[in-house]
Design brief:
By secondary structure, the chain is mainly α. It has 6 helices and 2 strands, in the order αααββααα. Helix content is about 60%, strand content about 5%. It has a two-stranded antiparallel ribbon with strand order 1-2. α1 packs across α2.
Length: about 150
Amino acid sequence: MILLNGPFESSIHTACLLTSAWPEPLDVDRLALMEHFVLFGGPDVEGIQPPIGQASTGLSTRRSNVRSGLQVLLRAGLAETEDGGAGFRATESAPAFVSLLESPAALKMRATCQQAANTVGRMNDEDLVAAFAQLMLAELRPAATHDDGTLE
């Protein structure tokens, strides 16, 4: 089962992220990390789903879903390319589309996307990589460390 994690759902998350980050363009890698943080939590972002504990393995799937979602958004006129195709930005139509998402779950997702855009979206590449590395280490910590933080 792919609950909230397939290419279609990713296109909805990506539309929200691009709208929240507008006018800044975002590349696929940043969008994939931001979507991961929106779904499962990250630096100053409370995820909309429980953590899965598989950040590194889920990221390649997330990138693929974001790419597929971006194709949907480009065809629908809700996103456009920037920087010679390396970055993506919401179009003027995207905010109107996102505003139609009014269920309680969608409102929470929209708010979480805004949090991610305001924090993770503004990080430089080095800080973003460090935040993701910290997330991966935190996944290992419960099973591989003692109470004082030393490795077993």
